[in-house]
Amino acid sequence: MAYDTFFRNGTPSIDIPTDRIVEISEFGNTIFNLSVKYPIIYGVSSIFLALVAGVAVSFIRRKISIWKAERLNKPAMY
Hints:
- The protein is mainly α.
- It has three helices and two strands.
- The protein has a two-stranded antiparallel sheet.
- The longest helix has about 35 residues.
- It is elongated.
């Protein structure tokens, strides 16, 4: 079924232009070169970045939850 979605009669059903050259920024080239030349460092740094992002989002979520709880538990002004 998936094959029929992308190929019809042996030819691709989606026409993707391949005549345009896509340029990658310097940061993108650095990350690509890091992944090719030093895959262990790239993998460890990716895991570390994911952990830091997860902890940061968890911290922000907790701060928002505390703020909402304090806001809802306040007595009315009138």
